[in-house]
């Protein structure tokens, strides 16, 4: 009888599982999984996803929503017609803070806005959103830029023409040929 040569399928699968686990631990340990570019993309995805959900909810609930942006945060608001004012959502009354190294800027109708400082104790009691999401399925045309504070770092744009869902794209560096 001849001796068997080579490895069995089970042995190969065990080696692949071990290599996969070691590679995963190496990536997590090296910090590659939490790189600034990755975190910036995650923040952009979170915000764009939130805007998409609010668009759907505005149409389904026949309500007006808004997003108030500050230099390092944003908050979802809902218009209360009985009171004639904007209110923070009960289930999301907290403000979503951005990491300290992220810089946020926004243009509405191609006009750059100066974002207010974080609301403190002396802030206005009735917040007003800059970005409106209407029950008709429309939203304020906007262009929002998320970037790192360091020069030459990654930058992402979230934008909508007012009728389509928000899209995320990498900002093109000036001076680079296509």
TrEMBL record:
GO terms for biological process: protein secretion by the type II secretion system. It is found in: Cell inner membrane. Keywords: Cell inner membrane, Cell membrane, Membrane, Methylation, Transmembrane, Transmembrane helix. The keyword Cell inner membrane applies. Residues 43-162 form the General secretion pathway GspH domain. InterPro entries: N_methyl_site, Pilin-like, T2SS_GspH, T2SS_protein-GspH, TypeII_GspH. Belongs to the GSP H family. NCBIfam families: IV_pilin_GFxxxE, typeII_sec_gspH. This is Type II secretion system protein H.
């Amino acid at each position: 009888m001849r001796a068997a040569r080579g490895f069995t399928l089970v042995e190969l699968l065990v080696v692949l599982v071990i290599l996969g686990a070691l590679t995963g631990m190496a990536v997590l340990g090296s910090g590659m999984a939490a790189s600034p570019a990755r975190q910036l993309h995650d923040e952009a995805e979170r915000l764009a996803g939130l805007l998409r959900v609010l668009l759907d909810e505005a149409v389904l609930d026949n309500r007006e929503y808004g997003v108030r942006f500050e230099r390092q945060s944003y908050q979802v608001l809902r218009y209360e017609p009985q009171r004639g004012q904007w209110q923070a959502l009960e289930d999301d009354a907290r403000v979503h803070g951005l990491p300290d190294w992220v810089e946020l800027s926004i243009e509405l109708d191609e006009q750059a806005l100066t974002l207010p400082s974080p609301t403190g104790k002396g802030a206005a009691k009735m917040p007003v959103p800059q970005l409106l999401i209407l029950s008709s399925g429309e939203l304020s045309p906007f262009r929002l830029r998320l970037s790192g504070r360091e020069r030459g770092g990654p930058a992402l744009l979230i934008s909508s023409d007012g009728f389509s869902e928000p899209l995320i794209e990498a900002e093109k560096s000036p001076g680079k040929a296509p």
